[in-house]
Amino acid sequence: MSPEPRARTTRDVFVTGGTGYIGRRVVAALVERGHRVRALVRPASQLRLPRGCTSVIGDALDASTFSRHTAGCDTFLQLVGTPHPSPSKAAEFERVDLVSARESCRAANAEHIAHFIYLSVAQSASLMRAYVDVRTRGEALVRQFVANGPGRSATFVRPWYVLGPGHRWPYALVPFYWIMERIPSTRERARELGLVTIAQMVRTLVSSVERPPVGERIIAVPEIREA
Q1: pTM score, whole prediction
Q2: In whole angstroms, how far apart are CA 62 and each of 99, 105, 111, 120, 170?
Q3: Per-residue pLDDT tens over the stretch 25-81
Q4: Alpha-carbon distance 35 to 29, whole Å?
Q5: Which of 60, 66, 111, 188 could staple 100 via S-S, CB 3.0–4.6 A?
Q6: Second-level CATH architecture of 12-225
């Protein structure tokens, strides 16, 4: 899963959520590896993009504000999401996460982009139900995008919680994960909902850009941890 020392093929990537916690690190890594990157931003966020990235002023909740700027891109990287998701933010998931996924799919469909990468979440029937439900519906929108055009593909990246600067409290749970992974009845679930690091996420997303699949690919927690 780790990216090769150099990208073999230069990609033209359109990114939403490029100034977020994960996005700004992924954009910087893509630019450093020689990819041509355009990132959707609000006017006040332009200066948060790394040098070498082209800013596109627009609204992630309205495809008409940015769709034409995706022309010529082969990859769409959808990273928009509600920060610090919690059960109390269910309405925001619907208003931001789901609507941005829908509008991104519309833009990608209009410009016939070949590969759509969607930052989803590990599937859980009992934890963070509203968040998981919205991300599941987001995946369905991306699958419809793939079905609408020949030669299209999709990558779904499904972390649970990403550790990094400002996101360290779950380190307290590491001993519990260690125990659960050694009990046969809870081992698989602990791995599916395990913790991953921001560095692993960046490497996973960069690798996803550089190595598009044929059809659909799902990258779950165990695969992210191998990045």
Answers
A1: 0.88
A2: 8, 11, 15, 20, 34
A3: 999 999 999 999 999 999 888 888 989 999 999 999 999 999 999 999 999 999 999
A4: 9
A5: 60
A6: 3-Layer(aba) Sandwich (3.40)
